Amino acid sequence: MSTRPVCVLVGAPGSGKTTVGTALAEALGVDFRDTDADIENLAGKPIPEIFVDEGEEHFRTLERAAVAAALASHAGVLAVGGGAVLAEENRAALIGHTVVHLSVELPDAVKRVGLGAGRPLLALNPRATLKHLMDQRRPLYAEVATATVVTDGRTPQELAAEIAALLKP
Ligand SMILES: Nc1ncnc2c1ncn2[C@@H]1O[C@H](COP(=O)(O)OP(=O)(O)O)[C@@H](O)[C@H]1O
Ligand SMILES: O=C(O)C1=C[C@@H](OP(=O)(O)O)[C@@H](O)[C@H](O)C1
Ligand SMILES: [Mg+2]
């Protein structure tokens, strides 16, 4: 039998994929994996440094490889970076998986990412950039998602419990 994640989380930066994913994995008693962390481990440096040293295109190449590897080998909760859905290859790879879109509107996303530290795409003008990214990606998150959970005004613990209930057969 092939290994597949119990749940893949997608959504905009600040939607809570890393935070809610960690809480969800704990609630389910499974491992949590985040393709951003996989990429940093492989590259041996933080994501902002990858963007500075090699550029976004190189990051996206590493991300496609990280998404494919994690989908094929991780049996727990998987979070992918907010921009993973931009690649057709990643959207195709997500077909057949349980994919939960953590939706967030601009006000909560802005509050959560603050000045964009650690997110190189948001380093300049986080609010306007986030608005642009979210407008561009909303249809892509909807395309890959098998369920959508609204995160605005909800705590990570509430969201983890809601998703855990959703995943029960
Ligand atoms: N539901 C939530 N309510 C309030 N703050 C949240 C929520 N989810 C995440 N956060 C906070 O927002 C920030 C970004 O969360 P993170 O999990 O890194 O998002 P993502 O991985 O989707 O970019 C973190 O500081 C986190 O503590
Ligand atoms: O939106 C994006 O394109 C990105 C989101 C980040 O992950 P989070 O969504 O976890 O912030 C990270 O993959 C990288 O900085 C690029
Ligand atoms: Mg994250």
Structure, explained:
With 169 residues, this protein is of the alpha/beta class. It has one domain: Rossmann fold. The chain contains 8 helices and 5 strands; from the N terminus they run βαβαααβαβααβα. A 5-stranded parallel beta sheet has the order 2-3-1-4-5, with helices on both faces. The two termini are 19 Å apart. The mean pLDDT is 96. Bound molecules: adenosine-5'-diphosphate, shikimate-3-phosphate (S3P) and magnesium ion. Residues 13, 17-18, 36, 47, 81-83, 119-121, 133 line the site of shikimate-3-phosphate.
Number of helices: 8
Strand order of the main beta sheet, please? 2-3-1-4-5
Give the beta-strand count: 5
Highest CATH level, the class: Alpha Beta
Cofactor: Mg(2+)
Pathway: Metabolic intermediate biosynthesis; chorismate biosynthesis; chorismate from D-erythrose 4-phosphate and phosphoenolpyruvate: step 5/7
Binding site for ATP: 14-19, 119, 154
Main location: cytoplasm
Question: Which key phrases capture this entry?
Answer:
Rossmann fold, binds magnesium ion, aromatic amino acid biosynthesis, 169 residues, transferase, binds shikimate-3-phosphate, Shikimate/glucono_kinase
